[in-house]
Amino acid sequence: MKLENKVAIVTGAGKGIGKAVAIALAKAGADVLVNDLNLENANKTLAEIESLGQKGLAVSADISQHDQAKAMVEAARDTLGSVDILINNAGVSKPSMLVNMKEDDWDLVVNVHLKGIFNTSQAAARIMKSQGWGRIINVVSTAGIFGTIGQINYASAKAGVVGFTKSAARELGRNGINVNAVCPGITKTDMTQKLQEDQALCDLYKSRIQLGRFAEIEEIVPIFVFLASDNAGYITGQVLGVDGGYIG
Fold first, then answer.
1. Are 145 and 247 in contact (CB under 8 A)?
2. Could you say which of 154, 205, 234, 246 is catalytic?
3. Domain 7-185+217-242, CATH number (from 3.20.20.190, 3.40.50.720, 3.40.50.150, 1.10.110.30)
């Protein structure tokens, strides 16, 4: 799973899964544009990438804004030389029950998760088509597959990402661009901190996971490197669960 001479963009890479994926891609030989709204966090990730001997760039673009997303992708091409791999990981959560949800909270979550991957993928696909090779890897959620309670905005957006993934794979396959999605299970990150602190809720969710535990970030990362590599050249349009058996 070597990625020498490849350029990757990872959104939401200032911490958590995104940061771990960005560093793993660099370890495999890729240069990486690190995107995060928090530029300080993005620069910390970039420093680790550069310590591995790879080039990189930190950009605080808001991917829900079309012009900012397009400029970010073009910056990767102009500064690092190409755009070969796009990891659409950035996310936000604004939980609320349907009857209480504010319109702004619906719009924010849908715009980041769904419009955001449209913005970045459109710009990246245009470059990848000219190269005849590319990998777009989206992050979805079990919430978007099974539904959930209290996060209907998040679940709806992630379900949309599944449809986007399958449709983009059909459109772009003829151009040598593979489009897949990764569905992580509950992973020990800042986003799940409140869940981890609620013992009753922890026990409930663990009872639904065949391996009986939450994932460590390091267990989620390898699938991204694999899908970004030539080894996954015949895999496209798929949603791969890395969830300890939750989907199964």
1. yes
2. 154
3. 3.40.50.720
Backbone phi, then psi, for 210, in 5-degree steps?
-60, -30
CB 72 within 8 A of CB 9: yes
**Where are any strands of DSSP class E within the chain?**
7-11, 31-35, 56-59, 85-88, 134-139, 177-184, 239-242
Sign of CA dihedral 198, 202, 205, 207: negative
The type of residue at 240 is L
pLDDT one digit per residue (tens) for the chain, 248 residues: 799 999 999 999 999 999 999 999 999 999 999 999 999 999 999 999 999 999 999 999 999 999 999 999 999 999 999 999 999 999 999 999 999 999 999 999 999 999 999 999 999 999 999 999 999 999 999 888 888 899 999 999 999 999 999 999 999 999 999 999 999 877 766 666 566 666 777 677 777 777 877 778 899 999 999 999 999 999 999 999 888 787 65
| Nearest-angstrom CA–CA distance, 173 and 168 | 8
- pTM over the 0.90 mark: yes
Token representation of residue 27: 């370890």
Buried b (16+ CB within 10 A) or exposed e, 164-179: bbbebbeebeeeebbb
Q: Is 154 a known active-site residue? A: yes
Helix (H, G, I), strand (E, B) or coil at 134: strand
Parse the chain into domains and list their residue ranges: 7-185+217-242
